[in-house]
Amino acid sequence: RTPRFVVGGKDAAANANKLFIFIGVDPVQVLSEDAKQTATINAPPSDWATTPNAAKQPLNGLIHQARLIAWGNQNDPHRVYYSDADDHEDFTTADSGSIRIASSIGDRIFCGVSFRGVVWFWKWPRGIFYLDDADLVLGNWIIRTSSEALGCAPSPYAVLPIDDDVLFMDVNANFHLLSAVDAFGGVRASNVTLRLG
Asked: What gap in Å lies between CA 52 and CA 34, rounded to an integer?
């Protein structure tokens, strides 16, 4: 599998820069500063395996609002996990947690992007969602639906933030712009492939 790299760390002044590596089979790896080899993330959620396991390892992640956010493990394919704000390797404290995204829509979360202060998630084969994390109380965070009709291709690389928008590939290999997604299910306005013929 092609790994997904996420630059993090420096979550507190004394902490090192880190590179997180998601493969979806091996435990999440972290490379700290100029270390010569990676190590397994310190405190993963209990849902993730501590050994290589394609069913229990996340396949993608990103940094949003000072937290490492990860998803895509097959044993809970609709769940997003977020780290402690002061430690990107810690998913077990009271300041970390997880949230389920509409298990009735789509089969699995594949992609996500932090865009203009909002974190968005794409499911395969359908479903686009965003996290309303405006409340300071973590328990009041809520997932909102942007589209039930569109989703992404089954790849952690199917979504790409560009200068002023987000470009994504749907399950039929058409490219769409997030800014033009119709909440009521229409795909004509967002479909760049259709407009280009």
From this structure: 25
Number of C-beta neighbours around residue 180 at 10 A: 15
Q: Residue 27: CB partners within 8 Å, gap ≥ 6?
A: 40, 41, 44, 48, 49, 50, 51, 52, 57
Report pLDDT digits (tens) over 16-40.
899 999 999 999 999 998 889 999 9
Q: State how far the Cα of 191 lies from the Cα of 1, in Å rounded to an integer.
A: 29
Distance CA 142, CA 20 (A): 26
Cβ distance 101 to 145 under 8 Å?
Answer: no
CA–CA distance, 167 with 192 (Å, rounded to integer): 9
86: helix, coil or strand?
coil
Nearby residues of 66 by Cβ (< 8 Å), 6 or more positions away: 11, 85
**pTM of the prediction?**
0.91
Are 35 and 29 in contact by the 8 Å Cβ rule? The answer is: no
- The answer to whether 130 and 109 are in contact (CB under 8 A) is no
